[in-house]
C-alpha cells in the first residue's frame, strides 16, 4: 500500500521497514504458540474477544478458543482447590468416589468463556458478570506496579545512548544495556 504512494525521499525506506516489521513480529502475525499469553490477553479483553481474528486465520480460531477454555478451567480449578483446602477438617476425612463435581466445574468454566465471547458488550463493566474471565483479564492485562526497576534501566540506557554513540544498532544497544545491568553477575 505504501509502495503505491509516490514518496520522494522515503521510497527506499519502505521495503526495509516492512521487512523488519515482518521479521520482528512474525510470531504475532502467524499466531504462533510462543505468544499464547498475548493471545489470551487480547481474547479476555471485552473490546476484542475473538473479533480480531480475521477470516484468513479461521483455522487458528478453534485452537485459540481451546486455549481460552483451558486457561479458564485452570483458574476455576485453582479456585476450587483453594476453597476446598480452607474447608473444615471433617471434610478431609470424607472420601468422594464420584467424578461429577469435576465435570460440572469444567462445564461451568467452558460455559462462562463461550457466554463471554457471545456477549456483544464491549465495556469493561461486563467483566463483573463473568468472575472467571475477570480474573483472567486481570492476570493477562495488568502489569506489576513497580516503576523503580524500569526507571533504573532507562537511566542506565541513557548513559549508553549518548551523542557520541548515536549510531548503535538496536541489537548492540540492547546487549550493552543488558551487560551493564548485569555486570555484577558476570564473572570473567
UniProtKB/TrEMBL annotation:
<dbReference type="InterPro" id="IPR008906">
    <property type="entry name" value="HATC_C_dom"/>
</dbReference>
<dbReference type="Pfam" id="PF05699">
    <property type="entry name" value="Dimer_Tnp_hAT"/>
</dbReference>
<protein>
    <recommendedName>
        <fullName>HAT C-terminal dimerisation domain-containing protein</fullName>
    </recommendedName>
</protein>
<feature type="domain" description="HAT C-terminal dimerisation">
    <location>
        <begin position="127"/>
        <end position="181"/>
    </location>
</feature>
<dbReference type="GO" id="GO:0046983">
    <property type="term" value="F:protein dimerization activity"/>
</dbReference>
<dbReference type="InterPro" id="IPR012337">
    <property type="entry name" value="RNaseH-like_sf"/>
</dbReference>
Amino acid at each position: 500500500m505504501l509502495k503505491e504512494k509516490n514518496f520522494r525521499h522515503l521510497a527506499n525506506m519502505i521495503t526495509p521497514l516492512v521487512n523488519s516489521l515482518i521479521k520482528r513480529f512474525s510470531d504475532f502475525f502467524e499466531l504462533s504458540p510462543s505468544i499464547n499469553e498475548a493471545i489470551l490477553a487480547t481474547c479476555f479483553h471485552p473490546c476484542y474477544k475473538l473479533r480480531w481474528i480475521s477470516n484468513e486465520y479461521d483455522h487458528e480460531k478453534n485452537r485459540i478458543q481451546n486455549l481460552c477454555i483451558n486457561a479458564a478451567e485452570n483458574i476455576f480449578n485453582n479456585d476450587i482447590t483453594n476453597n476446598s483446602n480452607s474447608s473444615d477438617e471433617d471434610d478431609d476425612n470424607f472420601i468422594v468416589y464420584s467424578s461429577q463435581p469435576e465435570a460440572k466445574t469444567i462445564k461451568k468454566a467452558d460455559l462462562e468463556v463461550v457466554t463471554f465471547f457471545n456477549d456483544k458488550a464491549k465495556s469493561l463493566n461486563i467483566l463483573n458478570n463473568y468472575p472467571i474471565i475477570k480474573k483472567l483479564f486481570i492476570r493477562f492485562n495488568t502489569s506489576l506496579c513497580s516503576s523503580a526497576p524500569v526507571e533504573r534501566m532507562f537511566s542506565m540506557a541513557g548513559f549508553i545512548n549518548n551523542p557520541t554513540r548515536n549510531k548503535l544498532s538496536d541489537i548492540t544497544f540492547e546487549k550493552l544495556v543488558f551487560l551493564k545491568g548485569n555486570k555484577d553477575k558476570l564473572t570473567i
